[in-house]
Each structure stands twice: as structure tokens, then as C-alpha cells.
Design goal:
The structure holds 2 protein chains of 2 kinds. By secondary structure, chain A is α+β, with helices and mostly antiparallel strands. Chain A contains 2 helices and 8 strands, in the order αβββββαβββ. In chain A, strands 2-1-7-6 form a 4-stranded antiparallel β-sheet. A 3-stranded antiparallel β-sheet of chain A has the order 3-4-5. In chain A, strand 6 and strand 7 form a beta hairpin. The longest helix of chain A has 21 residues. Chain A is elongated, with a radius of gyration of 21 Å. The termini of chain A are far apart. The termini of chain B are far apart. Chain B contains 9 helices and 19 strands. Classes of the chains: A alpha+beta, B alpha+beta. At the A-B interface, helix 1 and strand 8 of A face helix 1, strand 1, strand 2, strand 7 and strand 10 of B.
Chain lengths: ~120, ~350
């Protein structure tokens, strides 16, 4: 190999640690929510946009409210209202579920600070 | 031209080296056990991860139907047979779970008492509806008169018989732990080395999340947000289970009634806000979190020692945090909670007193 080859090889090898460092992102705050209805594919919504989302589950309509980076069930057709009583959620890796209506919300980020939330 | 070949070769080497370092995280969700179950698998082979998660969800679905406390299935049929004094051959899909429940119920001095299905039903916590009023004092007193425990079940190999016609098994405080622990073993058997199963806030993990252990946030029992975090042991499987008074409750005449019933009083246990247990076995972690919640801040250490639990964190009704010394080493409190009073117990015995 000539000098030019060695220079290119050296340059490319130097990219390895740089690329590795770039893939190690820092844990972030929640950026989006995923809404799962029954076992259908989840739909993603930004958590930065304040909005109310009406979804139709097995029992009827649930209303999911996003406000200032937090999310909650604000209305639900279920009788127990466990989903509403659980209040606001904001941590990535967290989940909130209305089981009777088969509606689930997962809070996600570029890289979750937590891999799961225990409660 | 030769330079271009060298450049392409070097880039290929670089890409390969980076790819070797990181397995992809695959994420799956399905409804089971009365909650949303999430499975995270870190593996190179997506097909293997897809297949393993599908099998897992199919198993969970079957277990959920077999072990349901009030919808007709194997458990309800078993309850009918247990209400009679004759021996019967137990269904193999539930026998091991009932034996585990029996063992941990005895170790917990029957504070974890899955035989009180009738009492739970009377409170209205079986079914999807919301209870509106508590049962009358008379109803509770009547149920407590001849309160069943798992001592009322005799075993002879795969045969069982009951000796209390009031006995109605409700395995809701152990079934999820048993299933998640079994799920982790099944994933391991299929060659999965890094996985986390989250069944509605109760979790078991093996291996790690890329370059660090699986990191679990523990929700504040009295409000929103995260109170503390734990990193799971990445050399072995490990589970973290919590029982709290905030998950299911109703309010009547200004009083709040939650779903964890103290079998000694017939009323919801009233000294604890939440208990978190860390253990290698999800079955015992699940049962112990209920038993310790009922035991409360005055008795929990005794029950923990009997059940062979060494990693416990409790928040009592006064907002105090109680921890075992070994749990203190594992838990990292969030900044907002670092000022709360923390009481560290004396070291607990690592082995159960009964075998």
C-alpha cells in the first residue's frame, strides 16, 4: 500500500470510535406517545402538541389529553375509571392502560431514561 | 482507483465493527393479565425475537384464561372441586402455581392469602366494574368467621382436596409474577440473552440494555412522577414488583377503599402506601409485595425474613421510606425524594424459616 492508502485507512478507522460515540445518545425526556387499541399497530403522537385525542376501543370512545408534555385519560367508557384515576404521566418508559376498552398509552423518547416503570 | 478500493474496504470494516457492537432492541406489546404487557428483546436476529415474543404472548393469553378468578376456566373449575371434601386430580396447568401459592402463603403467615376470593368478590374487586359501597360490617364479620387459608388445601402428588367450603382461590397476587418469571425462562431457552418483560408495571429482566443494565423507574405512590430507580442485575434474571394502594380503589362517604384486603380484618390494609420487592424469582416477589403491604411498617421485616426476601422498600402512610440495607445499596432516590425520612432496617435473614 502507498502512503495515500494508509492515510485513508487511518482516517476511516478514526471514524469508528466517533461513530460509536454518536450512537450512544443521552437519555431524553418523553417526545411522543404511542396509542395501542386492542392488538392493532400503535399510532404515534407528539407529546409537544397540546391536544385531545378521541379513540374508539372495544367499549366506546376514550379521550386522551396531552398537555405540556404530560398525558392522561380524561374520559373513558369503562366503569372502573382506573385509567382516569391514575392521573397524569410524563416519564418515558411509562404506560397507562384502560383494560376494559383495550386502549393503552406508552410514553417514549429518543432513548428512554428508564426501560420500564414499576408501580 | 486503488485508493477507492481501500476506502470501500475501510468503510466496510468500520460498519462491521460498529454493527458487531450493538444488537437491535425489538419492542412488542399485547394485552394480557388484565394489563398491557410490553416485551423488549435485544438481539441481532429479528425473526428469532419476533417468534419468541409471539410464543410468549400466546402463553400469557392461555395462562390468563386458565387462571382467571371469575370467568369460567380451569381455576373456577378447580374452585368448585375444592369446595367438596373429595380428592381430585388437579389440572397440570395450574397445580404448580397453586403449590407455589401454598408455599408462600404459609411463609407469610397467611398475610398473602389467595384463598379469600369470596371476600375480594364481596368487596367488588372481582370484575371490571367499579365498586360503589363497601360491604356491611355484618357481611365482613360473617366471612371472617370461617376464613379459608391455603392450609385448607391438602396435596398428594398431583391430587388435591379442600377442607373449607368457603375457600375460593383468587391467584391475582401471584399469577402475574409466576407467568413473567416463566416467560423469562422461556425466552432464555430460546436463546434470548437480553430481555425485559413489563406486565403492567411488574417487571423481570435478563441481561442488559446495550451497554448498561436494564434501568427501572419506581413510580411515586402518592402522586405523579418517579420516586426512585433500580438497575437490574445483568448477570442473572431479576424482578421488581410493587403493590400499592393507588392502583384500584373507590371512595365512599369520604373514605378511600383500595383493593389489597387484610385477611385479618376483612378491610383494606391501612398502614402502607406501597411496597417494592426485588428478587430473582418473580413468583415470590409478587406474593411478597402483597404480604409485606398487608404486614405494614411494624411487621414487614418479620414476614420478609420468613419469605427469604432481602431487598424491600416500603412507603408508609406517613410518607416515610423504609428499606432493608441491601435495598438501600440498589435504590437511587430521585432528587425530589432525597429529603424524605428514610429508615433502614436491621439486616434480614436471607433464608426462609420454613422449607
Amino acid at each position: 500500500m502507498k502512503n495515500g492508502d494508509w492515510l485513508i485507512l487511518l482516517f476511516c478507522l478514526s471514524l469508528i470510535p466517533l461513530s460509536w460515540l454518536m450512537t450512544k445518545r443521552q437519555p431524553g425526556t418523553t417526545t411522543a406517545i404511542e396509542i395501542t387499541i386492542s392488538d392493532k399497530p400503535a399510532v404515534v403522537y407528539s407529546i409537544k402538541v397540546n391536544q385531545q385525542i378521541k379513540v374508539t376501543g372495544q367499549l366506546g370512545d376514550s379521550v386522551i389529553e396531552i398537555l405540556e408534555g404530560r398525558v392522561r385519560f380524561s374520559e373513558s367508557p369503562c366503569s372502573s375509571k382506573v385509567c382516569i384515576l391514575s392521573g397524569w404521566h410524563q416519564d418515558s418508559g411509562d404506560h397507562v392502560v384502560c383494560l376494559p376498552n383495550k386502549v393503552g398509552i406508552s410514553l417514549i423518547s429518543q432513548q428512554d431514561r428508564f426501560d420500564g416503570i414499576n408501580f | 482507483m486503488r485508493y477507492i478500493h481501500t476506502l470501500l474496504l475501510a468503510i466496510a470494516i468500520a460498519v462491521l465493527l460498529i454493527a458487531c457492537d450493538s444488537q437491535t432492541l425489538h419492542r412488542y406489546q399485547s394485552f394480557a393479565f388484565g394489563t398491557l404487557v410490553e416485551v423488549k428483546i435485544r438481539a441481532n436476529d429479528k425473526t428469532m425475537a419476533d417468534q419468541a415474543s409471539s410464543r410468549l404472548f400466546a402463553d400469557f393469553d392461555q395462562m390468563h384464561r386458565d387462571w382467571h378468578a371469575w370467568e369460567p376456566g380451569i381455576l373456577t373449575q378447580t374452585n368448585i372441586l375444592l369446595s367438596e371434601p373429595e380428592w381430585f386430580t388437579a389440572d397440570s396447568s395450574i397445580l404448580d402455581l397453586i403449590k407455589a401459592a401454598h408455599r408462600y402463603s404459609l411463609l407469610s403467615n397467611s398475610l398473602f392469602n389467595p384463598a379469600i376470593g369470596q371476600l375480594i368478590r364481596t368487596w367488588g374487586f372481582q370484575g371490571t366494574g367499579q365498586p360503589v359501597t363497601p360491604p356491611s360490617k355484618e357481611e365482613i364479620a360473617m366471612l371472617l368467621q370461617n376464613l379459608p387459608t391455603l392450609k385448607d388445601i391438602e396435596f398428594d402428588g398431583d391430587r388435591m382436596r379442600g377442607s373449607n367450603s368457603q375457600l375460593k382461590l383468587d391467584l391475582g397476587a401471584i399469577a402475574k409474577g409466576y407467568a413473567v418469571a416463566a416467560g423469562i425462562e422461556k425466552l432464555r431457552d430460546q436463546g434470548i440473552q437480553n430481555a425485559l418483560i413489563n406486565a403492567g408495571g411488574d417487571l423481570c429482566g435478563i441481561g442488559s440494555q446495550e451497554d448498561r443494565p436494564w434501568r427501572i423507574g419506581i413510580r411515586n405512590p402518592s402522586g405523579e412522577g418517579i420516586m426512585a430507580s433500580i438497575e437490574l442485575d445483568n448477570d442473572n434474571s431479576e424482578c421488581v414488583f410493587t403493590s400499592g394502594d393507588y392502583e384500584r380503589y373507590f371512595t365512599h362517604d369520604g373514605n378511600r377503599y383500595h383493593h389489597i384486603i387484610d385477611p385479618r380484618t376483612g378491610y383494606p390494609a391501612n398502614k402502607t402506601a406501597s411496597v417494592t420487592v426485588l428478587h430473582r424469582d418473580g413468583t415470590v416477589a409478587d406474593a411478597a409485595s402483597t404480604a409485606l403491604f398487608i404486614a405494614g411498617p411494624d411487621e414487614w421485616w418479620d414476614i420478609a425474613a420468613r419469605m427469604g426476601i432481602s431487598d424491600v422498600m416500603m412507603m408508609d402512610k406517613q410518607g416515610r421510606i423504609l428499606m432493608t440495607p441491601s435495598m438501600q445499596k440498589r435504590v437511587k432516590l430521585e432528587q425530589a425524594y432525597a429529603q424524605l425520612p428514610v429508615i433502614i432496617s436491621a439486616p434480614l435473614a436471607a433464608e426462609p424459616w420454613l422449607n
